[in-house]
Amino acid sequence: MKLLRTKKRKAVVILLAFAFVFTLTFRLAFDAIFNAIIDMELRERLPIRNGSTAWKYWIVPPVPVAFRIFVFDIVNPDEVLAGTAVPTVVEKGPYIYRMHLRKTDIQFHDNHTVSYRQPEKFIYDEEASVGSENDTFTTVNIPFLTTANTLKYESPFIQTFTDAFFRSMNETTFMNRSVYDIWWGYKDPVLEIGAEILRKLNLSSSVVNGKFGFYMDRNNTDDGHYNVYSGNNYDFSNYNMIDRWNGLRFVLCWKRVFQPQLALLPPPPLPLFDSLSLTTAPRTLRLVYNRSTTVHGIDGLHFQIPFEEFASAQDYPDNAGFCTPDTDNCLPSGAINIINRLHSLPGSPVCVSLPHFVGGDPYYQRQVKGMTPSQEKHQPFYNYHPLTGVALTGSRRYQLNLITKPYKYFEAFKNMPEAFIPVLWIDGVADMDKETIDLFKHQLQDMLDAVVYVKHGLTALTCLYVLIAVLVVFYWRRKDQKALDPERSPLMANGRVHRTPTQTNGSVTKYDHLQDPYPDPI
């Protein structure tokens, strides 16, 4: 019986040990197995080639972009001209355009890259906006201000004559323009005369064409010829990163050279606590990991453009090349001078900042009233899917400001304050559509969620085997102790098994058999 009991116990021990080792081994190897499966799936789906899963989403990005414009209406122009008050602005918006993207002129190359153009088509969405794109607001007369700034080192006669000419054409310090005018362009009388003079001289200019607008003649156009890595060699370390932009690997801009890097999607999988680089011609901005997040039920990583990207060289030396004309003329942290970078009117005293000067020096907010900076509302961000690198949501935000100051020989600007007056800010909001959300959930996120449960289940099962083993051993010990406990059987004394007496004859006692007080435990 004892031998049988020992064999049963050995069988139980072997079974539990085998189950424990198998489950533990599978749990430890599960991540490697899962990663190998994911790698196979990425190799099949991610390369940019006709027929792959990524192909149709690469040609037509699945994240619709709402191009939201907010304008700043100057409500006290007379007090500003009189020099009795700083400009006070009231934000109006959003005025929303739907931006439609589609890649064209696609060509594949032997070095595993693909080149393309991506025209941007804007359609106004009045229903989603606060009003018509023809709503008007008051701002500084930008062509007039640009002329004053351009001629500031010319002779007093030339400046005075030019000022008189502008005013004879009914040009004033401030102008009332529509949202459409300031963005897409409007005809300016002085610029029209300049364009006419050039035509008579058989000269042409893409700038002096009789119109001005920040995004003039840009609808249905692209921002250059891109060449990116396709991943067709299954190397995703540089997937969708820019190899060349307009044929150039490096671009000289301001007083520094920058290399275009990230076109839209970062290479998967994304590392935690790392930074990315996003190219927004003509410069590259850093994206810094902030936290994990969930977007429409899909796990994501939240990246932000840090405030240091708009810091002065004194506060952030890496930005020294963006000071114009040199580091002695850096703007206070929070804005970057783009006076010679505005394609629609070079020489315009314009600087770019984050909306409402968020993250900038308080100096800017002291010069204009009406700023309400909010990190949540105004700091640019992107939420990326950690496995595929697809942008789940994002918001590209920036603000255009005019740098104003007095111009002695221009009557219209004689009393103009030294200030940074905001004109408008842009919120390019990208949010994944429902069809793509459902695709991600059903084909990817549900699987990833299931994997988490499987991992937890395997871990719990491993612990359960350990618990069962402990309980079995405890059970066996209790059984053995009960078998050896003299208080639990009158037949036990001094640890020996007694015989049962059946007959006594004189002084001799006879025993007919041995009796075990307990049955065999397992």
Automatic annotation (TrEMBL):
InterPro entries: CD36/SCARB1/SNMP1, CD36_fam. GO terms for molecular function: scavenger receptor activity. It is a multi-pass membrane protein. Residues 492-522 are annotated as: Disordered. This is Scavenger receptor class B member 1. Its main location: membrane. Keywords: Cell membrane, Disulfide bond, Glycoprotein, Membrane, Receptor, Transmembrane, Transmembrane helix. Pfam families: CD36 (PF01130). Belongs to the CD36 family. The chain crosses the membrane at residues 457-476. GO terms for cellular component: cytoplasm; plasma membrane. It comes from the Eukaryota. It is found in: Cell membrane.
